[in-house]
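Q: How would the structure tokens look for this protein?
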Amino acid sequence: MRKLLTVVALAFTTLTINAQDNHNFTIKAGVGLASIVGSDADTKMKIAAKAGVAYDLKLYKGLYLIPEIDFALKGFNTSTVNYNTLDKVVHMAYLQAPVMAAYKFNLKEDRKIVLKAGPYFACGLFGSKITINNFWSSEEVSVFDSDYGLRRFDVGICTGAAFEQGHFAIGLEYSRGLRRLAPDFRHYNQAFGIVLGYRI
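A: Here is the predicted structure in token form.
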């Protein structure tokens, strides 16, 4: 939690730097698909979504640092995870803070192609209820339950490509968790989709 708060604080600190460029802030929203991946993961895709704000901090010519704060909906559709029965799609909502390095290739008439990649840090806020089957009983707990649920904190990588023109941007983004969702299983978050942005 302390690491996540540090990243968030650093991201907001950069918002007051390099204000001479136009369209530094980007309000973003996107939709796509999410699942969990790994050598012993057996899941189907579910609808994912995200919304947030990013800030373009110019470092040198076309090189930028882009911190973001996102509300991201992830999850998966599966029959079993962590030996607990799941009879529905599992939803997980995160506060996510990517920090990406980007390079913008200038085209004519205020058009740019953007390639970016970097780490993200995420904290699970809330999610679905999951059914825990014991030998003689069952109960429902939060997907982030400290005893039976998945890990609340996630770390991973984000990559993306976008096209910018004036105030508007459209692109594709992909994120992949690097921290196991459960200690004993190789399950990792994965999400990708189309993201639209308005630059102000």
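Confidence is low (pLDDT under 50) at residues 14-20.

Residues 118 and 172 are 15 Å apart (CA to CA).

Upvote if useful.
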